[in-house]
Design brief:
alpha/beta; 5-stranded mixed β-barrel; 37% helix; globular
Length: 484
């Protein structure tokens, strides 16, 4: 590594101050093993045991005591319920969600119900002012400190009641200041800071310049709204880990059966599905994914992927900027290349071979170019706090200057479809947001660090379409672009 581009912990601390954290703190704390996502765990560590390096024995003890008291384990559920029923006020740290039960007419006024998944309590009462102060509870929910008691509700019945709630506040985000911070780093230093902030060690010898770009491309669905992408990779590359830990706006669903109500809208309960609730929905283990009724799902899904809107069961249209990410395992040959390189989706469920659906994905992340994850590849440097990092990424969604830059600096040389052009530009815009948030860059930097990887992502989809459907042979086989 060039001496000018070595990982500089002092520089990160100097520039980002209390928005940075020593990434060694988290794995040595044991919090993630307790089921606590990184964006919550790092926030807690910084409040309870701030510092650098692995946790000391005393710090471990403080964290362990906090976990024992505040984070329920599987065996604790019934004990906590019993203690609350006996009149104790219990405090815990968990995810809290609220829904309004208007499934069927009732003579009584329906009141909102709180759900605490970790305790398997789906129908708790909740003080109205808590919902008013935390509207995000209505939907994906919020992590925070929950206080429970057992009280008589307005219907005159005893029930578990959420009487207090202290949400975890994410770090304040100022995108303009964030862009100024970027100017203090070289491209390589900034790229490695992003990688470290994802929880990976950029100095590990397994990561080369190319693999770092493809790992960071996993961030594109966060910085770009309605960014739909697949990642195909062998097992063990850590495809889902980051998505599970970055922010509560991201939801990961692993394999199994997906129903239309869960994905779009539940007409019986009135609940909006994944695509209308979260900012990023991730379907993991797609190679084993089944749809309860494919015909009921594929149509609305194609509509949604094309224009960010869907309709189901005669209800009003639902608009969403949720990005859909599909993660699937593929087999590699002896040269660590995909076994079915001419048809990367050969082992995916049959409906993915429908070209009209496939065309609506921005690209395919080449997970076969990403090293398999080992524990010694975890970050050991100073990176951005996960809660701050996640909020920065989502805040960058709102800025359309980056797409305009890509549009005005990209020239399409080969004959490709309008969708190829738009989706490639959207990827280039995403890379600009990641690497040059202040838009201070040269044309050469744009070409090599943004446009070329964006072109590669879309080329994977374009090649599949070209091979699967003669209709796409009206376009040239290769997407050729340059700066202008």
């Amino acid at each position: 590594m060039n001496e000018l581009n070595f990982y500089n912990n002092d520089l990160v601390t100097q520039v980002f101050s209390n928005l940075s954290i020593d990434k060694k703190r988290l794995p040595s704390s044991g919090l993630t093993e307790s089921g606590v996502p990184s964006f919550v765990a790092e926030w807690l560590l910084d409040k309870i045991v701030p510092g650098i390096g692995n946790l000391s024995t005393l710090e471990h003890e403080k964290v362990n005591n906090m976990v024992m008291k505040a984070f329920p384990r599987k065996d604790d559920k019934e004990r906590i319920k019993y203690q609350v029923q006996q009149g104790e006020e219990k405090k815990l740290i968990a995810l809290l969600q609220v829904r309004v039960p208007l499934e069927k007419p009732s003579e009584e006024k329906q009141i909102p119900l709180a759900s605490i998944p970790v305790l398997n309590l789906p129908e708790c009462d909740i003080e109205p002012h808590i919902i008013e102060q935390n509207p995000l509870l209505l939907g994906r929910g919020i992590w925070g400190k929950i206080t429970l008691n057992y009280a008589i509700n307005e219907r005159g019945k005893y029930n578990v009641n959420v009487c207090e709630f202290d949400p975890f506040q994410t770090s304040e985000v100022n995108i303009k200041d964030y862009g100024k911070c970027r100017e203090k780093f070289t491209f390589e230093q900034w790229r490695d800071l992003l990688l470290c902030s994802m929880g990976l060690n950029p100095e590990d010898s397994a990561y080369n310049d190319e693999s770092k770009i493809w790992i960071l491309s996993r961030l594109l669905p966060l910085v770009e709204s309605n960014y739909h992408v697949m990642e195909l990779a062998p097992k063990g590359t850590g495809k889902s880990f980051f998505y599970e830990n970055v922010n509560s706006k991201v939801k990961v669903i692993s394999g199994g059966k997906i129903t239309a109500p869960r994905l779009f809208f539940n007409g019986k309960t009135g609940e909006i599905g994944l695509l209308g609730t979260y900012d990023v929905a991730v379907l993991d283990e797609v190679q084993s994914l089944t749809f309860d009724n494919p015909d009921e799902i594929i149509g609305p899904l194609k509509t949604y992927l094309a224009n960010g809107r869907y309709n189901r069961s005669g209800f009003a249209d639902i608009n969403s900027d949720c990005s859909l990410v599909l993660l699937a395992n593929i087999e590699l040959d002896a040269y660590q290349r995909p076994k079915n390189e001419d048809n990367l989706i050969k082992n995916l469920p049959k409906f993915f071979s429908e070209t009209a659906l496939l065309d609506r994905f921005m690209g395919i992340i080449p997970g076969w170019k990403i090293p398999k994850f080992q524990l010694n590849m975890r970050a050991t440097q100073i990176g951005l706090k996960t809660d701050f990092f996640g909020e920065v990424l989502f805040n960058l969604r709102k800025d359309n200057r980056f797409y305009h830059y890509a549009q005005s600096h990209t020239r399409f040389i080969s004959n490709v479809s309008g969708r190829d052009q738009i989706y490639l530009l959207k990827s280039a815009s995403g890379f600009l947001k990641l690497f040059y948030p202040s838009l201070n860059l040269t044309e050469e930097e744009y070409l090599f660090n943004c446009l070329k990887p964006a072109r590669f992502l879309r080329q994977q989809i374009h090649s599949l379409l070209y091979n699967l459907d003669d209709e796409y042979k009206q376009y040239e086989k290769e997407i050729i672009v340059d700066v202008m």
